[in-house]
Amino acid sequence: MTKRAYNFNAGPAALPLEVLERAQADFVDFRGTGMSIMEMSHRGKVYEEVHNEAQSRLLSLLGNPSGYKVLFLQGGASTQFAMVPMNFLTAGKTGSYVLTGSWASKAEKEARLIGETHIAASSENNKFMSIPDLSSIEIPENAAYLHVTSNETIEGSQYQQYPDTGSVPLIADMSSDILCREFDVNQFDFIYAGAQKNLGPSGVTVVIAREELLAESPKHIPTMLRYSTHAANNSLYNTPPSFSVYMVNEVLKWIEEQGSLAGVEKINREKAGLIYDTIDSSEGFYRGPVEAGSRSIMNITFRLPSEELEKQFIKESEQEGFVGLKGHRSVGGLRASIYNAVPYENVKALADFMNHFQKNHG
Ligand code: PMP
User: Fold this and answer.
1) Which ranges of the sequence are coiled-coil (predicted)?
2) Where exactly are the structural domains of the chain?
3) Residue 81 CA, closest ligand 1 atom number
4) Among 151, 185, 236, 311, which residue carries the largest CB count within 10 Å?
5) How far is the CA of 194 from the centre of ligand 1 (A)?
6) Would the CATH topology of 18-257 be identical to that of 260-361?
């Protein structure tokens, strides 16, 4: 049997073994065509079926909200940082952003290249170790939208509830927590996510948005950067990342098999609970810097009493087969990314390792 690592990478990240095996079986002869999905026309019936299946499966997992469309784009979530303001930040309007950490800040900074921005709330004073109080969010009258980052992959914080923006469109970067739990899509007008954490491999960026937001885009922006181009052509204006879309479809099937969003949420909460309990019962040996009410169930960040011990932790954990536990270089410390596909057993193994490490070094 293949030996699989205890993979805690932040992204690209662990994929379900069942999906990888399915892809392996499909690899050279997809659905009896005598070729791989990568070798066939994206205009053909076989590929289009997969493409449409992935879209409808995603909407079905979200409860088939009415009036929403799914797009498959390229360029990563980083390209969405620019496309969102290019398409929606029209003259006289401001792009309003909630700053919660590195990714929200990058999104806002990119929007400044396109137009005027506004900070609706920020936890920067708290070193981004919390999600700002929703009641502190101020949305200006001329806001084109309010942009939030549902989960800060680097700092390890996550919204527990979302602001009510009234008639102002709510836009969310859900790259690192999409489909990790049940949520009401109707609260959002526009959602985007790079696939390489909870949805599949890198190469495709998923958009779920209200159709009316996609209907018309400013004519002065390049064709490929207009949402209307992709919406009008079912994301087949140009060649889509066909293999990535196929993989997303398989990951979505796997989520259905886990009991859909309610099923994965239950396991995700148990997994996160294992690590947070280990941190909280360590009598200060492990420290979770993010405020309790803002803790992410996808990216768990933690510190040890010294940087030397953190280095030692990485070294010993690697010897035991754990991968990807080093915190992002910009913040240091440790980070366990426990996306949907990271098995409960692997998270249990990490909790056991943490206890063991504390016994030896505490
Ligand atoms: N937003 C968030 C929350 C992310 O975690 C990432 C990637 N780690 C990005 C945006 C950027 O995504 P990409 O690399 O697909 O451009």
Assistant:
1) none
2) 18-257, 260-361
3) 10
4) 151
5) 6
6) no
Tokens coding 354: 């943490």
Q: In sequence order, what are the residues at sequence separation of 6 or more whose Cβ sits closer than 8 angstroms to the Cβ of residue 267?
A: 258, 344
Strands 190-194, 170-173: pairing is parallel
Residue 3: pLDDT band by 50, 70, 90 thresholds? confident
103 carries an active-site annotation: yes
What is the pLDDT, as a whole number, of residue 2?
A: 72
pLDDT value of residue 50: 98
Which residue's CA is the closest to the ligand 1 atom numbered 4? 175
CA 41 distance to own-chain centroid: 29
Say whether domain 18-257 belongs to CATH 2.60.40.3710: no
For residue 103, report the distance from its CA to the centre of ligand 1, in Å.
Answer: 7
Task: Look up the CATH architecture of domain 260-361.
Answer: Alpha-Beta Complex (3.90)
Q: Do the annotations mark residue 196 as ligand-binding?
A: yes
Pairing mode of beta strands 94-99, 117-122: parallel
User: What are 109-120's pLDDT values in tens digits?
Assistant: 999 999 999 999
| pLDDT above 90: residue 1 | no
Residue from 159, 176, 199, 335 to probe ligand 1 pocket by mutation (most atoms less than 8 Å from CB): 176
Q: Is 74 in the pocket of ligand 1 (CB under 6 A)?
A: no
